[in-house]
Amino acid sequence: MLDASEFPQIPPERERYWIDRVGAEPFHAWLGLRFEEIRLDYARLRVPFRPELLQGGAVVHGGVLTTALDTAGVGALLSAHEERPARTVTLDLSVQFLGGVREGDVIAEARVRRRGRTIVFLEADAFDTAGTPVAHAEMTYMAAS
């Protein structure tokens, strides 16, 4: 897991704005997804475990892991913005599944690797509650005003 203290803090009102705004989107709310921390170019979130998130093999569905990774990326992306850019688009998302989550929450962390004027490159990792990596993602977003 990343050391969040390596990333600069953002103003508390901006962190609260993004935690409340992104976390309240209907799909995220349905999943129970909640941000725990957003810093400049970094975000961590949690998806609380519930049996409805399991797939037939009795592990949390890969779509849940992918959503956690993608959404953590959005938190890290938006951390540098006061307001949501006019257009925020996922251009590329590649996920490698490393293991399964049978019980317990999913934790996802994302960090910006490179930020351009409109294109941002990020990576994210998902873990089970024991800290075992279960998925890794490389992402490219466009954020344009």
Account of the protein in words:
- The N and C termini lie far apart (32 Å).
- The protein has helices at 12-23, 26-31, 62-78, and strands at 34-39, 42-47, 87-97, 106-115, 119-127, 133-144.
- Strand 4 and strand 5 form a beta hairpin.
- It has one domain (4-144): Thiol Ester Dehydrase, Chain A (Roll), CATH 3.10.129.10.
- The chain is 24% helix and 37% strand.
- It has a six-stranded antiparallel sheet with strand order 1-2-4-5-6-3.
- With 145 residues, it is an alpha+beta fold.
Strand order of the largest sheet: 1-2-4-5-6-3
What Rg do the Cα atoms give?
A: 14 Å
- The total of beta strands comes to 6
The gross shape turns out to be: globular
* Biggest sheet record: 6 strands, antiparallel
Order of helices and strands: HHEEHEEEE
The SS-based structural class is: alpha+beta
User: What would you give as the CATH superfamily?
Assistant: Hotdog Thioesterase
Distance between the termini: 32 Å
CATH architecture: Roll
Kindly identify the CATH topology.
Answer: Thiol Ester Dehydrase, Chain A
Number of DSSP helices?
Answer: 3
Taken as a percent bin, the fraction of beta residues is 35-45%
CATH class: Alpha Beta
Poorly predicted runs: none
Number of domains: 1
Q: Which range best describes the helical content: under 10%, 10-25%, 25-40%, 40-55%, 55-70% or over 70%? A: 10-25%
